Amino acid sequence: MESTARMRRMARKRWRFGLTAVLAIVIVVAAGVHFYPRRAAALGAKDTIVLADFVNRTGDPVFDETLRQGLAVQLEQSLFLSLVSERRVQQTLRPMGQSSDKTITPEIARDLCQRVGSVAALNGSIVNLGKQYVLELRAVNCRTGDTLARAEATADGKERVLKALSQAAGKMREKLDESIATAEKFDTPLE
Fold first, then answer.
1. What are phi and psi of 128, to 5 degrees?
2. Of 125, 162, 176, 190, whose CB count within 10 A is highest?
3. Phi/psi at 36 (nearest 5 deg)?
4. d(CA 12, CA 132)
């Protein structure tokens, strides 16, 4: 009789221990799911991007329009990303009191972005450090001004700037949630 009572007490202890362990695991998993930072997709398939002119800090006028055009060519290869057309940009600049040949600064791009209902503005800059050129791309949320993604590439000499631009554009496409396979398949270098 004593051994039966003892076995029942041990069984209850095991049962309590097992229940406590299961509850602890459930609490840990629930806390992890709740507090684990979830990263929302940067862009959806139907979202559009306004492309700003590059900020040229090199002093070399050859980069004034070519980098924006090169970046547009790179991004238009994407099946995922969609740029706001030049025509729509020009149509939207007029009511803003801007001329159609106005440089699209990051501030103007963000304003344009909000007016056309886009999600992001893509800003670029180039600076030279000796014989190297550093390109930076930054995708900015139009409503909040927060950076969605950033990509950078360095070129060893002026003749390699387009290659660096292609690399930075590829990085940006991936960071904006385009699949790596699609980005690689539809990525013809500018050179």
1. -110, 140
2. 176
3. -65, 130
4. 73
Give domain limits for the chain. Answer: 1-38, 49-185
Q: Say how far apart CA 2 and CA 153 lie, in whole Å.
A: 78
Q: Stretch 175-190: mean pLDDT, rounded?
A: 52
DSSP state string for 61-106:
TTHHHHHHHHHHHHHHT-SS--BPPHHHHHHHHGGGT--TT----H
| Best CA proximity match to 164, nearest among 129, 189, 138, 139 | 189
Flag whether pLDDT at 37 surpasses 50.
no
- Give Dmax (Cα) for the chain: 98
The overall average pLDDT reported for the chain is: 82
Per-residue pLDDT reduced to its tens digit, 126-143: 999 999 999 999 999 999
Give the C-alpha separation, 149 to 113, whole Å. Answer: 16
- Cα end-to-end distance, the chain, whole Å: 90
Angle made by CA atoms 64, 70, 75, in degrees to the nearest 5: 130
